[in-house]
Amino acid sequence: DIQMTQSPSSLSASVGDRVTITCRASQSISIYLNWYQQKPGKAPKLLIYGASTLQSGVPSRFSGSDSGTHFTLTISGLQPEDFATYYCQHTYTVPYTFGQGTKLQIK
Amino acid sequence: QVQMVQSGTELKKPGASVTISCKASGYTFNDYYVHWVRQAPGQGLEWMGWINPKNGGTNYARTFKGRITMTRDTSLGTVYMDLASLRSDDTALYFCARDRDDFTGTTAELLHWGQGTLVTVSS
Questions:
Q1: What are the angstrom distances between the C-alpha of A6 and each of A49, B47, B62?
Q2: Are B41 and B120 within 8 A, CB to CB?
Q3: Cα–Cα distance list, B112 to A11, A103, B20 (Å)
Q4: CB nearest A44 (choices: B59, B62, B113)
C-alpha cells in the first residue's frame, strides 16, 4: 500500500499568515492527490484535487503544488475560518490512503 | 442540490454486524461512485472502499476484506455498507461520500459527503 506522510502534525499560526503543509508519498502517484479540510464534528471538505486544481467555490488563498512524490498545500493569508485539520489523500491505486492530518491552530 | 443522508447512530456489541445506509438525492444515482470513509475518535480518516451504483461493482480496502459488504438499491437511490464481526476498534464515525465527477471509473475526489454515522462497539 502507498503510505502518505504528512507534516507537520500540528501547526500554530496567526490570521494573515502564510502556511504550508506537506505530504509525501511512499512511491510515485503522479498528480493523484487531493486535499481536504475538516472541522470538528463535520465531514471533510474537498479543497484541491489533481494536486493543484482548486475545487469550485474554494477561496483562491488555497493552492496546491507537486514535485515528484512531494506535495504541498499553501494557505496565503489565513482567515479565522481556516483553522481546522487538513488531510491529503492519494487516489493513484486502492487503497486510497489519507495522510495522518495536520491540525492548524490559532497562535 | 446533491445530498447524501446517512442513517442514525448505532450501538453494537462485539461480534455483531452493522448496516449503515446512505440515501442520495439531487443527481442521477447511477452516474457517480460512492465511497465509504471512517474516522475513529480523535483519529484520522481511513478509506474503506467504493461501490459503483450502476452495476454494483465494489472494491474494498484489504484491511476490511471478508468483513465488509457494500450494496445498493437503485430504486431507492441508496447505498449500504455492512461491517461484520465488529470489534471495539471499529468504533468510529462512518461517512459515505460521492465522487466529484461522473467519469468512467472513479476518481475518488470526494466532493459530497454524508453527515456521518457514529458506530459504537461496546459490550
A1: 16, 16, 22
A2: no
A3: 27, 22, 17
A4: B113
Determine how many CB atoms are found less than 10 A away from the CB of residue A68. Answer: 10
- CB atoms A34 and B116 under 8 Å: no
Task: State the DSSP string of B41-105.
Answer: TT--EEEEEEE-TTT--EEE-GGGTTTEEEEEETTTTEEEEEE-S--GGG-EEEEEEEESS--SS
What whole-number distance in Å separates Cα of residue B15 and Cα of residue A85? 33
How many percent of chain A have pLDDT more than 90? 98
- φ/ψ of B88, rounded to 5, equals -60, -30
Cα angle for residues A39, A44, A48 (degrees, 5° grid): 115
Separation of alpha carbons B86 and B18, rounded Å: 8
The C-alpha of B14 sits at a distance from chain A's nearest C-alpha, in angstroms, of 25
Q: Name the pLDDT band for A83 (thresholds 50, 70, 90).
A: very high
Q: Write out the three cell numbers for A48.
A: 484541491
Q: Which 8-state DSSP code applies to residue B53?
A: T
- Are B62 and A95 in contact by the 8 Å Cβ rule? The answer is yes
Name the 3-class secondary structure at A4: strand
Q: What is the pLDDT of residues B32-78, one digit of tens each?
A: 999 999 999 999 999 999 999 999 999 999 999 899 999 999 999 99
> Using a CB-CB distance cutoff of 8 angstroms, which residues of chain A are in contact with residue B111?
46, 55
Helices (H), chain A: none
- CB proximity list for A37: less than 8 A, separation 6 or greater: A44, A45, A47, A82, A84, A85, A86
